[in-house]
Amino acid sequence: MSTEDIYHRPTTLSQALEALAETPFRIAAGCTDLFPATERKVLQGPVLDITGIGELRGISHGPDGVTMGATTTWRDVIEADLPPAFDGLKLAAREVGARQIQARGTLAGNLCNASPAADGVPPLLTLDAVVELASLRGTRQLPLSDFLKGPRDVDRAPDEIVTRLHIPAKATEGQGFFLKLGARKYLVISIAMTAARIVLKDGIVQDAALAIGACSPVATRLPKAEAALIGQPLDVARITGDLIEPVLAPIDDARADAGYRRGTATELLRRTLAPLTPERAA
Amino acid sequence: MTRLVIWGKTYEIQSAPGRRLSEVLRDELNLKSVKVGCDAGDCGACTVLVDGAQVCACLVPVAQADGATIETLETAEPDLAKTLQAAFLDHGAAQCGICTPGMMMAAMELLRANSTPSRREVEDALGGVLCRCTGYAKIVDAVVGLAPRAARANGHAVGVPLRRLDGQPKVDGSEVFGADAGPAEALLVRAVRAPHFHAQFRFGDLGAWVASTGVLKVLTAQDIPGQNRFGVIPPLADQPALAEDTARFLGEAVALVVGPADVVEPLDLSTFPVDWEPLDHAMTEADGPTAPLLHDARDGNVLIKGRVASGDPEGALAQSAHVAEGRFQTSYVEHAYIEPEAGVAWMDGDTLVIHACTQAPIMDRDDTALVLGLPQDKVRIVPTAAGGGFGAKLDLSVQPLIGLAAMVTGQPCRMVYTRNESMRASTKRHPGTMAARIGADAEGRVTGMVFDGDFNTGAYASWGPTVATRVPVHASGPYRTPNYRAEARAIHTNGPTAGAFRGFGVPQAAIMQELLYDDLAAKCGIDRLAFRRINAFVDGDKTPSGQTLASVGMLECLDALAPAWERALAEAAAHGNGPTRRGVGIASCWYGCGNTALPNPSTIRIGITPDGRLRLHQGATDIGQGANTVIAQIAADALGLSIEAVELVGPDTGVTPDCGKTSASRQTFITGRAAEAAGRALRAEILRHTNFSDAAVLSLAGATLTATENGKTQVIELGAANAQGYALMAEETYDPPTTVLDADGQGTPYALYGFGAQIAEVEVDLALGTTRVLKMTAAHDVGRAINPLLAEGQIEGGIAQGLGLALMEEFLPGRTENLHDYLIPTVGDMPEITSILIEKPDPEGPMGAKGLGEHVLIPTAPAILNAIRHATGANLTKAPALPHRVRAAIGAAEFEANSGPKSDTDFAETASVSGAVSVSETGTPHGS
Questions:
Q1: Nearest to B685 by CA among B646, B638, B643, B725
Q2: For residue A37, what are the contacts with CB-CB under 8 A and spacing of at least 6?
Q3: Nearest CA among A120, A112, A118, A35 for reference residue A75
Q4: Does A272 touch chain B (CB under 8 A)?
Q5: Is residue A2 over pLDDT 50?
Q6: How far apart are the C-alpha atoms of B605 and B586, rounded to whole Å?
Q7: pLDDT digits (tens, 9 = 90+) for A55-103
Q8: Neighbour-count burial of B772, counting CB atoms closer than 10 A to its CB (0-12 exposed, 13-18 middle, 19+ buried)
Q9: Model pLDDT, residue A102
Q10: Cβ distance B182 to B346 under 8 Å?
């Protein structure tokens, strides 16, 4: 058997880590990105399929926040009972492909595929998601923004598996929202997308997390725009182009040109915040 | 070992654990309702239920389905499947049928959780399955469970919204498409294709590669026994089945690899020994004329020029009260049928038999015979069901390749294009760069028009000549244009070959003309619909080609749209000037049915066997549009027997006479006329055995054929079979009366035209430039609606493709050869569509019928683009109107509005149109 034919589907994480320490497997989860990347009828090995590992799937709540297993699917997210801070993530989940993709595609797969247009990333950035990786050498955690290094590039060693995402308790506060801009409905790769999570107290913004995707090599938080909101009543007019556009590095592609992405980012972000204002939310 | 649970039974799977579930279900378990359209989760044709959840089987390694319950259309719970099948048939929800199984599986997931879903819920559930034929509306109708639309024939068949006669296999998953045909043990053929837009190539050591890979054969141009040049227009044949020395476009086939499937399928063809030397390439109609010649003797890379001229257009424009002038550019558009090209071939004695998807079996036979050096009668083409065509399956695809492989190996050989291969190798809609000027007098009468269009025809001729001749004939639109000059050039480039695509260039030209009509209406201060009504052709008008029109339903179409127009304008105005704006647009179409100024006969044979079976040899390939049903309806009524007695004999070149190609909106008209004549001839033949008049009523019950008149019944003895197997038989041919066109395009290019007009209502987001089409109202003069349900299906499907052309479809060679970068409309993009069928009989049409298939797409894009302009002032100059283009055009319009005096092109729609139009009584609107 050539290594191309190896397909390993362990049922425990330790089996998976031991295998990965031996062989530089391709890690497969929902396969909604691996299969489209090939015309072959069989996934090219060596493949380490982690979907048989029960402990890697599912969502749990604890005092220190919410933990989501690596192979949790978008459909799992949609159907989960989660606080309003996750509404943006749920909206993004509904925009991943269509129902077929949502049933198979996984959270960790979306991150490890590291597309600049990954729908899950902006809302996860607003949730201050922490990525946990495991190997036989131990586990480590790092912020999602550090894990994503560039297009198709993540901070994962060949012997590591992304095991879960952790949302700190503080980031489960507030209300989230998400908007996706595409040239058609369903099954569409984003031209741009924006996510927001706002914590309001007595009408004043206590905390603001804003992120934008598909307008730079990796999706990014928007700290200047966040700072402009904090301590003030929520007012979308505070979001101005000068706070956002310097952070962006959009490209021309088949979906839109760079100037359009730059020009619409501010508008899209304002619209993402609009439903979160007290009068609209009420 | 993987175990799958199917219909309560556990199957142990032998395939590799990483194999796509779709392949396992199709190949190992023979569940062929699972269709493979893209292998990328983009089309949803392979949608199955895994433990009750819809998934794309192409994205699931079979190991991940271990222990799961898998449901396919063949193996899903029978009651729900039967209910859905009946609903799909009753609503005309399946046209070609390739997406139908996936649609039904997605619907089943929904209906189990929610038996009374809303349209919105259905759209969410079906959003992951693409359909290219129907426009989705009838699918949603079927799933939400609206009352059935189909009716049964009642004494006569024509005019009745019958279920399609060939529908059952499409809705139960048993239909055989190109990839489903042939023996499982057939050898697999794959093509080595050029990775450059233009390159010379030289093969390395093929023998060593064959030995190292274990394939059976490698075939190149040197192995082709016949003439390695084919083309749909024989004098211009220029395309090799396998390129010789030079590849002229990205994806051109240069060699074939043939062998057992388990050897050939996993091969990495990038190891194939071929050296490429990239050459300079030209990709646009602007660059083509100055690029090195692609074909000797075609100066300036001009394949052909078309021209129609009459009167004195320059003089007329100079004297016009108003002149509108503009330029417009369109993009390559991909047909994006959900079924990639596929087929299987084998030798039956000394006859090469090819089962493949096609729109043109006889042309396939003739060109394949030419390439392979065989007499025509030694090639038999048996069309499989075609999972969509829209023009691109008129050209050869797999036929000469699998034919060559079968001849050389002596074994059955099959080939299935990948999605990438299909999008690279197949033809496209021509990109056009068009400029036009149209003049009108002070009363709004068009005085003259000058049109000039360059069309990128790509590397080979294909149907480029047809585009270059059709466009000048039609560029006036269905409007009186007394002084006229239209020229079109088809220009070679190293882009993909542009060929036939629903409308042959007319949809592009209609955009140019209809945008300028809005300008002219504004300049004249006349409502846009009223302006079109002033100029619309009426009976007896002369076309720019000098042809006198016999039956024109334009006024009837425009008048039928008038109420919707007034309502839509009022609603758009009431929407106000917020962040979104509403707009309304209108455009018309005309389209000549059949080949342009060339013969294109159809022959229909119909007979009754000695044991009383009524067989119709129906050679008009049904690619989903409904010829199998419509032609049978015409034949049955002409004969005077129940359509339920008709057995269809398919478009198999071995047993069925030539009905030509399914293109040019010609089958209902031309094959319909042949069917009408054959039906009448058989009726006369039957009545010759009686002493009854033509008023007699025929009946066929079992093997007993009777005729009854004035209370007297006579049994007609069915005698011995003739050479074709019939006791009674008729065969009739119809060829439409046309003439060649002179140097000014004057003559009778078509025997019959169809007409129509559509209104688009859109909502545009000013800041984002996104457009939502809210509603389309379409009125089409079909002469006689042979099957109103199928006619509506054509309208809705044509509108879907027109919407894609207008808003999202842009094929970029080398960049968008998949269905996630190349976007076609999903169920969520479609507006509500109201179809109005106008029946103004044409004396030349069968029972008055006119063609419809292409007409329906022509007005959609200009109506939408005009609506965007009405909403926003955005003056678009390129399709598709992607958000960034609309946003830029809105910005330019805002700048113009703020920086100068108001131009005279503002719309003048505030005036009521009620005085200008009245509802005609000659039309017969059907439907809602």
A1: B638
A2: none
A3: A120
A4: no
A5: yes
A6: 43
A7: 999 999 999 999 999 999 999 999 999 999 999 999 999 999 999 999 9
A8: middle
A9: 98
A10: yes
- A 10 A CB-CB count for A278 gives 11
pLDDT at B900: 55
Can you give the pLDDT at residue A1? 58
3-state secondary structure of B524: helix
Contacts of A1 (CB under 8 A, 6+ apart): none
Task: Give the pairing type, strands B446-458 and B483-492.
Answer: parallel
How many cross-chain Cβ pairs, A to B, lie less than 8 Å apart? 157
**Please, what is the Cα angle at A11 between A9 and A14, to 5 degrees?**
100
The radius of gyration of chain A's CA atoms, rounded to the nearest angstrom, is 19
Q: What is the CA radius of gyration of chain B?
A: 27
Q: Check CB contact of A54 with chain B, cutoff 8 Å.
A: no
With contacts defined as CB-CB under 8 Å, which chain B residues touch A7?
16-18, 61, 63
Q: Does A189 touch chain B (CB under 8 A)?
A: yes
Minimal Cβ distance to B128: which of A36, A41, A99:
A99
Any chain B CB within 8 A of the CB of A132? Answer: no
What's B502-583+752-928's CATH class? alpha beta
Instruction: Domain ranges for chain B, please list them.
Output: 1-152, 180-281+335-425, 502-583+752-928, 602-734
Candidates B15, B28, B64: best to mutate against A (most CBs of A within 10 A) is B64
Give the bridge partners for B449, in sequence order.
B438, B484
* Interchain contact, A39 vs B420, CB within 8 Å: yes
Q: Per DSSP, what are the bridge partners of residue B629? A: none
What are the backbone dihedrals phi and psi of residue B573, each rounded to the nearest 5 degrees, phi first?
Answer: -65, -40
Q: What is the CATH number of domain B602-734?
A: 3.30.365.10
The tens digit of pLDDT for each residue in A108-143 reads 999 999 999 999 999 999 999 999 999 999 999 999
Tally of CB atoms within 10 A around B140? 25
Q: Which CATH number is associated with domain B180-281+335-425?
A: 3.30.365.10
CATH superfamily of B1-152: Beta-grasp domain (3.10.20.30)
Question: B610 and B374 in contact (C-beta within 8 Å)?
Answer: no
- Search chain A and give the residue with CA nearest B803: A184
Going by DSSP bridges, is the β-strand pair A47-49/A7-8 parallel, antiparallel, or unpaired? parallel
Q: Above 0.95 for ipTM, yes or no?
A: yes
Beta bridge partners of B832: B775
Inter-axis angle of helices B78-91 and B100-113, to 10 degrees? 120
Q: How many CB atoms lie within 10 A of CB A59?
A: 20
Task: Classify strands B432-440 and B446-458 as parallel, antiparallel or unpaired.
Answer: antiparallel
**Structure confidence at residue B658 as a pLDDT band (50, 70, 90):** very high
Distance from CA of B833 to the nearest CA of A (A): 18
Among A27, A33, A41, most B C-beta atoms within 10 A, so best to mutate, is A41
Q: Do domains B180-281+335-425 and B502-583+752-928 have the same CATH topology?
A: yes
Q: Contact, A238 vs A229, CB < 8 A?
A: yes
Start-to-end CA distance of chain A, whole Å, equals 62
B55 Cβ under 8 Å from any chain A Cβ: yes
- Whether B882 and A31 lie within 8 Å, measured CB to CB: no
CATH 3.30.390.50 correct for A172-281: yes
- Mean pLDDT computed over every residue of chain B: 95
Measured distance CA(B97)–CA(B92) in Å, rounded: 10
Peptide bond into A46 cis (omega under 30): yes
Give A152: exposed, middle or buried? Use CB within 10 Å, 0-12, 13-18, 19+.
exposed
**Other CB atoms within 10 Å distance of the CB of residue B577:** 8
Residue among A7, A103, A181 minimizing CB distance to B18: A7
User: Tens of pLDDT along B64-84?
Assistant: 999 999 999 999 989 999 999
